[in-house]
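FW: tagging you since you asked about this chain on Friday. Here's the raw sequence from the shared folder, copied in full. Didn't touch anything.
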Amino acid sequence: QVQLVESGGGLVQPGGSLRLSCTASGSSFNIMAWYRQAPGKQRELVANIISGADINYADSVKGRFTISRDNAKNTVYLQMNALKPEDTAVYYCNAVRRAVPGVRYLEVWGQGTLVTVSS
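HL: got it, structure written out here
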């Protein structure tokens, strides 16, 4: 069974830090990413890491968040520093396996983990 299991969310004060983890099982993936969805807003890309090398961030988190990947553990992390109240959202892990001959395309979502930034 292919699944993503997230952990690390919680309540933190403004300026604080949290680290999210997402462990994949059942497959390897070319792209792993973190999205978030705040109340009343659309889900948005926070950061992704492509083939373990190409990294992209949303402008709103550049310089504060760091995405990394441990291929041996099939796990992606999101280190979040200098958190702001506007970072409050449910954070979702996403993984994509590209289609190649003999291997079908696959996209999987985690269940989401709530991050609340409040004093």
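FW: The first strand starts at residue 3 and ends at 7.
HL: agreed, and Residues 49 and 55 are 4 Å apart (CA to CA).
FW: great, closing this out.
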